[in-house]
Amino acid sequence: MVERQNRRQRILIVTLVIICVLLVTVYSRESKDGLFHRLQRFSLDVVSPLQKGMSKVLSPVKDGIGYLADLGSANSERDRLKEDVEELQQEVDEGEELKLENEALKSMIAVKESRTDLGFLVVDVIGANPDIWEQTVQIGAGYSDGLQEYMAVLSEDGSLVGRIILCTSEASVVQLITDDKSSVGAMLQANAEMGVVKGEGRGDVRLELLNQDADVKTGDVVVTSGLGGTCPSGIPIGTITEISERRADLSVGIVIDPRASLTRLDRVMVVVSPPPSTSPMAAEGGG
Amino acid sequence: MVHRRLTFFAVLVVALLLQLTVSPEIGIGSVKPDILLVATICWALFEGPGQGALFGFCAGLLEGIFSTAVLGVSAFAKIIVGYFSGELRQRVISKSVIWPMIIVFFGSILQELIRFATWALVGLEQRPPFNFGIIAGLALYNALVTLVIYPVIRHFTGQEDRALMFP
Question: In this complex, is the C-beta atom of A28 within 8 Å of any C-beta atom belonging to chain B?
Fold first, then answer.
């Protein structure tokens, strides 16, 4: 009896494993319009209203966890924060929700006024990818709102957040610049030296300059170059915080602190015009 | 039998909904609890290796469908973790609540190692960089979440006697 049950169990497990192998094989070989890719897009559409609702309900919990997480790094930043305490205290006192929202809207209007060459759509962030290996967020607008894949996404203060990699009718997935598959054309604001900003997957962003002998120093501001046809030029990405020694391949490791607060995104601005003209080199979804 | 199947689907659906809606909201940094994995291991601890593998397959398949990841990889990893967690049920006799948490901790690490190995085997070009710190963080967070999920699944499976192993 027990032996029979064990045999049935083994057959079940072998069958399930074979199904998995077939699924992985078919999924890896099919195109983006294949059955399983379409199924994923459909399921994203189905679940996005739920995520939208839950995101609002759980926002106090999220804020609480964010506060606790920040405590961990508080010691190392204490000295720097002391200098900012007076300014921040004033902001905390004024931290009523409506006021913050008002300020955010003002900030977005300022960005719109400063970049009249671009058209924006303001969209709420409705969720994040549950997979820890993908630095993406979901936003509550899709192609029915005029969005399309590879459009650039900015924070409320006009800094680069990432770009859309998957678009459904009601929602879209935004790949953050910190994702290890993200790659954006960039340049130094000070001397227009060109390069590529790549995500490191752990919240870090790195700049690879085309000219290895370029004049670069910490504190330099990095902006988008506009090359590649997905992100318009002149959008701030971040500030250089660390320049390491030359590596074996003679390249210089340059670490950037992203200007946008990528872990606290409530609302973003999508650059809807001009539309992206080409596909970036690395915008495929990972595993 | 009908009650058991209903419980299976109810636990699966609730875990999926929590994974999609609550998990991203309670993440610390890039670490978000894998509620479907915790549910798989808890289910396997109550129902045995066969049921654990079946639950893991369904959970991993749904996880793949509701994300942008390669379909089948999570299902494969969760089958293995579910099966071995179920096997442990017959070998571990303890009244300590710490055991399910320890199994979830190591099960989480095993799952991520299997996923990375599978991505490498299928030749996925753009796979994330291996970071054991993130995996350890995930395992720790999952172990903490077990404190909440384990008693709930024990209640719904109605197997208080078996649960005496981990009261």
Answer: yes
